[in-house]
Amino acid sequence: MAAEKAKRSGRIRQMIEIYKTTKVHDRNLTLALLLSFIGPLAVALILAWLLPGGWFGWVIWPLTGVLVGILLVMIVLGRRAETVAYRQIEGRPGAVGAVVQSALRRSWRGSEVPVAINRNQDAVYRVVGRGGVVLISEGSRQRTQRMAADEERKVRRALRNVEVVHLYVGEEEGGIPLPKLSKALVKLKPALNRNEVAAVYNRLSSLQGTPIGIPKGMDPNKIRSQRPR
Question: pTM of this prediction?
Answer without folding.
Answer: 0.69
